[in-house]
From TrEMBL:
Homodimer. It catalyses: 4-amino-4-deoxychorismate = 4-aminobenzoate + pyruvate + H(+). This is Aminodeoxychorismate lyase. The gene is pabC. GO terms for molecular function: 4-amino-4-deoxychorismate lyase activity; pyridoxal phosphate binding. It is an enzyme of class 4 (lyase). The keyword Lyase applies. Belongs to the class-IV pyridoxal-phosphate-dependent aminotransferase family. It comes from Kushneria phyllosphaerae. GO terms for biological process: 4-aminobenzoate biosynthetic process; folic acid biosynthetic process.
Length: 279
């Protein structure tokens, strides 16, 4: 495994991650040198490398990274590529993967935890590709184009739909809504990123997976409550939704007990201080 940190500016122009997006990345919240949801991040990186057909770094090698963080809260960004070699799109066998990493100072947004956020529906539609579904791969042009659709800072996130107008995720966060007495999050068998916080919340029984065919856009828009979450920002309640023409759509949600209870569960996992009422 070849590795380089943010202090080394050299990236090979032949690196397949740069040339083709042939690789994966993780963004890990690190607090005073301790990584949050670390087992889940390492497991996702390993699963992704296996799907792409090359080796992930050894766990012992990865375990040495978070301890290099300065004190305080940082995001550890790990980028794993197939390395260089091969001819055109044909990958080298065996591959010689490279791993790049850096620590980025981070401050959460507690006002968004407390007051919630406004979102919009993106015009861009996610392509269905089961071979890549769930992976946090380096080719994120869909997300870039979707995020380019708005510049209004009052809109915190954009909701991404597939080509059948079914909600899948936000540009950088997972999505959930509350109805029928439980929290639902879209299945990600055709597209979307399987977030580490999402996986833990499902494993703990706090989230249920909604089959794509059972989750049309009106089900999300007419739900009782809704939220966004990831393993860095925590959980943001959604309070209103606009369409791509900046008009309100039916989705307007209170910050109610179900939101606060799920938020409390998520933030406990992440070590965030959370003092908002849960009832």
């Amino acid at each position: 495994m070849t590795g380089t940190d943010s202090g080394d500016p050299m990236v090979a122009v032949t690196d397949r991650g740069l040339a083709y997006g042939d690789g994966l990345f993780e963004t890990v919240l690190v607090r005073d040198g301790v990584p949050l949801l670390w087992n889940e991040h390492c497991a996702r990186l390993s699963r992704g490398a296996g799907r792409l057909g090359f080796e992930a770094p050894a766990r012992e090698w990865l375990d040495a990274l978070p301890g290099q963080a300065p004190q305080g809260e940082h995001v550890l960004k790990i980028m794993l590529t197939r390395g260089s070699g091969g001819r055109g799109y044909r990958p080298p066998i065996p591959a010689e993967p490279r791993c790049y990493w850096q620590f980025i100072p981070f401050k959460p947004m507690p006002e968004r935890w407390e007051k919630g956020v406004s979102v919009r529906l993106c015009r861009l539609r996610l392509a269905r590709q089961p071979a890549l579904a769930g992976l946090k791969h380096l080719n994120r042009l869909e997300n870039v184009l979707a995020r380019q659709e708005w510049q209004d800072d009052a809109i915190a996130e954009g909701i991404l739909l597939n080509d059948r107008d079914q909600p899948i995720e936000a540009t950088a966060m997972n999505l959930a809504w509350f109805d029928q007495g439980q929290w639902w999050t879209p299945e990600l068998t055709e597209c979307g990123v399987e977030g580490t916080l999402r996986r833990v919340l499902i494993d703990k029984g706090l989230l249920s997976i909604a089959k794509t065919e059972d989750a049309p856009l009106p089900r999300f828009l007419n739900s009782q409550s809704a939220c966004l979450f990831n393993s860095v920002q925590g959980l943001w309640p959604i309070v209103e939704c606009f369409d791509s023409g900046h008009q309100h759509v039916p989705g307007q949600w209170p910050i109610d007990g179900p939101v606060r209870r799920l938020q409390d569960g998520a933030h406990t996992l992440m070590g965030y201080q959370f003092n908002f009422p849960t009832s």
